[in-house]
Structures
1.
Amino acid sequence: MILSSNSKNLKLCAELIRKDDIVAVPTETVYGLAGNALSETAVRKIFEIKGRPLIDPLIVHCFDYTAALELIVNNSLIDHLAKQFWPGPLTIIAQKKALIPDIVTAGLKSVAIRVPSQTELQKLLKISKVPLAAPSANPFGYVSPTEASHVKRTLGEKITAILDGGRTLHGVESTIIDARNENKPLLLRYGPIDPIMLEQHLNYPLLVQTTTRNENRAQNAPGLLSKHYSPRARVHLVNQTALVEAVKTIAGSQAIVSIKKSQKLIHHPGYHWLSEDGCLETAANNLFALLQNLDEQKYKEITIELAENSGIGLAINDRLKRAAAK
Ligand code: AMP
Ligand code: MG
């Protein structure tokens, strides 16, 4: 059931959380499937509902930095990043304290943690008084939800409550930085906070390790899956020139998607765009919603233009490459 955000419904969601139930919540990145991060029972339900393998650790969401400090071992890099970017779409990998059940971190001694800025989620964290473990609220491997209706369509049968916060602000998942070694900040996932934004606040060069892992091999630090964020349709990635060529031979079951709306292509059936003016923030915000929409329209193939490799374009391209992976 989709619940509009008012104090009665927020209280109801907090009660569900406190009873180890699972609630879908809005965040500023994508919708999350949230449960009490300190309860093994609740966290187990999250993995079951999502069909997520237990080797893929969850992100823990806290009300504020003080609440986060109860769960992690601090250092000067974490302190600096938290003060600069929280609340906001930056997930920090830190050494965990024993309070966090092993199931949350897939047995790792580290935990992924962040303080979200989304208003309804902030209120829920405040009244439920527990940290929330929350992966994206979609069946494992599918496109992340950016609207309450996306959650309802894919997981509606399995959860009692979906808290509505409207369309999410960024539309792609948080940036992840490993800050355990204060001399070696390591970027693990591109997101709304890009490397240049991060580097302005670092004393050491930012190392980047967003390469995909082999799903079949055990990992020291589970990273990102090579195939992820995938619609049912097959995804092909092209540059702008190839996109214009692709339109010429388009068939009925194929969709073509550009970053910026093109007046030249607009009359072709199957043509879609991610922004009117090429704004990459807008394109990121529309990306997952459009992929879901094209799946609903039963397209079999989607040919999509890669973004410029800068700013949030890095996150868009990262998600597109995973969506296209076989
Ligand atoms: P999602 O919940 O879909 O946003 O994915 C969360 C991602 O965070 C996981 O797939 C991991 O890549 C990453 N993550 C979570 N915890 C850790 C950790 N302790 N160490 C490294 N990466 C982590
Ligand atoms: Mg996800």
2.
Amino acid sequence: MNVDNTGGATPSMTEKDMLIREIERLKKEKKAVVLAHYYQRPEIQDVADHIGDSLALARYASTLKDVEMIVLCGVHFMGETAKILSPDKKVVIPDLEAGCSLADSCDAEEFKKFIDRHPGHTVVSYVNTSVGVKALTDVLVTSGNAVKIVESFPKDEKIIFGPDRNLGNYINSITGREMVLWDGACHVHEQFSMEKLVALKKEHPQAKVLVHPECKKALRLLADKVGSTAALIDYAGNSDADEFIVVTESGIMHELEKKFPEKRFIAAPPEDGGCACNECGFMKLNTLKKLYECMRDGQPEILVDEKVAAAARRPIERMLELS
Ligand code: 13P
Ligand code: SF4
């Protein structure tokens, strides 16, 4: 990376400008596409070719043409999903340590025992899972299509759902099903405080409340809209309201404020005010510098054992067909 050294004739570039310029150059040189989740840092969202929720990122990964490298700015399971759907492409992620507490709450061996304890049940899993859990699954869902996919099964279908108990409980409440739930959760979404949300609603009585389904039931009951990150953004755009309380990871604020500058978005505080626990530390491990470096070096690369990938591909493709 060269620093502009024209004796001041051209204003000197900040490190951020230089990184952005290099990322743009590398996109062309390496036929790379940058995909970013809404929870990524603002500067990563801004440089991405496409931003989206996990469903949109999976769709992009399965349909990209004339691309040799997918740069997945999100967490590890999102990179794995992209690799499974595009095995012929190189998939890199800025930080390989970007995991997910929800995916970690469901060990594949334990999940297999859970399945064995429920013979005759269809296995529906959230996409926030390891590839090993995906391989044990009949159909995957994201928060953007979960209700629709579960409703596609006959009313009396026996279903087990993992790993998120909150999303599972939400689907049960909407569909009237009694799916057996794995007892997992996301440490970020579990942190939001109902008491603080009630207080915030009192301060902003006109505000609509947007809640991600990974939040606890008590918070969902206070929502005007429960949905995936993309669904919450769409709702804010289509609503007549001009004030919203946002109960999900704080990275989404960037897209909301960028897309709807005339509206006001208030981030709901977590239980312990002052901490940054409404930030997903895993998502925030990715930085602009690491993004540049991973494009330059072509690593860290996401690699998935082909045998496991083949088993995991089927439930992902089924999800894309059903949604
Ligand atoms: P979305 O599918 O709504 O983007 O959510 C992904 C996620 O990890 C939520 O914590
Ligand atoms: Fe996983 Fe929660 Fe982070 Fe989403 S916010 S990636 S579910 S840890």
3.
Amino acid sequence: MLYHLLYPLHTSFGGFNVFRYITFRGIGATVTAFLITLWLGPKFIRFLQRHQVGQVIRDDGPESHFSKKGVPTMGGLLILFGLCFSTLLWVDLTNVYVWIILGLTLWYGGIGAYDDYCKIKKQNSKGLSGRGKMALQIIGAVLAGLVIANLPEYSTTLNIPFFKGFTPDLGLFYIPFAMFVLVGASNAVNLTDGLDGLAAGPTVVTSGVYLLFSYLAGHAVLANYLQIPYVPGAGEVVIFCGALAGASLGFLWFNAYPAQIFMGDVGSLSIGGALGMVAIVTKQEVLLAIVGGIFVLEAISVILQVGYFKISGGKRIFLMAPFHHHFEKKGWSEPKVVVRFWVVSIILGLVALATLKLR
Ligand code: 57M
């Protein structure tokens, strides 16, 4: 909004020229989202406590989690507010990509909010049915995939990190592929969100890396030089990524161990969807498996554990899945598991950046 209000005035006041620059607006969006989330956090936590929007804890989980009963949940609403407010404040509102990303993020947030609401109302850890949740996620993903694949300047080719010469065109198959990315990312973040700060930390790293990739993808000269796909208009996604990183950092302030608030499904499903959609817009879908490697590993640990549990008649690979619980069961303290996972996430972020030069 500021871009539309203030940039046109640059002819009378030269200083307003800065609103033209994506870098300036990206920093503005990051700081704004962080400060809003930080400012609203305590008020929002008190509001949730007053309305008893507290976490229901499973009785079959690690014992260290029993004391978390009643911690306010649905903190994702705070993240979504900071993210949307800041994005709308700083972005060029005529940019179609940002609207698609915001739409998908809010759709997934709506699914999560409904799920959280059901769990709190029924006072058990089962919300919306797994199938119902999946069906709603697929509908959102297919719609988003159809819209984006039909944009004239968008290409349905696939880009594979380290293999820049190999870019197969998926054509119509791009829609199921996009669906896989969106539904997979959303559920992977959801599975990761089981320890204080565990999902928010890698979210900051992933959005930070995609902030850079959006800038490069939207810059014809740099994209050409680095041999990455040029997506006209993708530069504005920098503002969304900055706002996501800022809002997640603000949320992390309160979600850090011992957490005063959890994000709930409204947070985890929407963040996963947002990251998936950003990866799709910037044409760096496969890269998400690297930079978001923590989310992928958590999801794989669940698939392996559940699969093996079924075929072996009750045996396990990990002491408990998702595998952050495995380390807890081994005796690592919760902050140790979380910080070590952050360390891995940062290293994976660096590997993702290396794909810019290595081919
Ligand atoms: C949700 N949610 C947390 C909070 C958060 C198939 C199966 C593996 C699925 C999986 C599952 O349901 N995962 C998705 C994970 C829950 O957190 C809430 O949920 C939101 C995210 N969706 O924002 O609102 C609990 O996680 C803890 N937490 C924190 N700090 C945070 O910042 O400590 C969350 C955020 C919270 C809190 O304790 O209550 C969750 O874990 O439920 N299921 C599981 O994860 C379960 N695994 C399991 O059953 N494994 C089995 C195999 C055979 C399937 C096994 O390995 O034996 C575990 N989850 C729990 N206890 N809580 C195991 C038991």
